[in-house]
Amino acid sequence: MPRMLDVSDEVRAEIGDEEADRLLAGENAPGSYDCTSCRTPGDSERERTSTVLFIGDETAVLAFAHATCLPSQVVQVTEEQLLGAVKSISGDSVDLEPEQVVPQQAVLGVTSGLVLITGELHPALVVEPTGPIVRPGSTTVGDDFLPLLIEQGFMPVTELNSLPPVLHGWSVLLAMGQLHAVLQPGPNSGQPVAWWQAHQPLQVTDGWRAAANKHQQVLMFAAPVGSIGRQPREDLLRDALDKAAANGKLVASVLPLAGT
């Protein structure tokens, strides 16, 4: 049965016309899948679905995503990242079925909110992955998310009673009142590159935007998977941040604001 698949020109160029046509005809594409972006179920027979090709040094893995989450595209990753994702599920055997690899691609969830520190409201972003983040090239099972950020200059936080230091070189990109990306220094002190980029620009509240424009900086908190969760209210978000800090599972920095 034909699938409602989007196959971009760059994906088609990598997999070839014959394979692309087979996918569109439904021969090789699954009906149901887990979206590689939001990790919720999708159905390529009923909703527009993007083909996303992860390419390592020697291996390529085809994945699927809701078209509303990601456009069809080619994503370059290291061979270690690609094989590490497989080994985390299947031990030492390497089975490159997309359905097995893709759910292990951790996605960074970003929540915006206002946080009260020293009697003043500050705009904050809270980053929490959907799964453990393993150091590139590592073959061990664990979560290196916080150590990797500490190496970048983020500071461990045990309580939210003062602002952490400014992390120069990093910034939060706000354009036309919407959140677009968190930027980090580029290689060899080049142009900044996206550490996290919204698939679609994220709306922020008027209060958050006003506070960001006032301070010209944004607090960024980061915690391992399962530490914060999706909190529907800012008071609950603050409670979750306090708890993560007390448990030694929170890092933070102040990032300059880029844009308006």
UniProtKB/TrEMBL annotation:
Highest taxon in the source lineage: Bacteria
Protein name: Uncharacterized protein
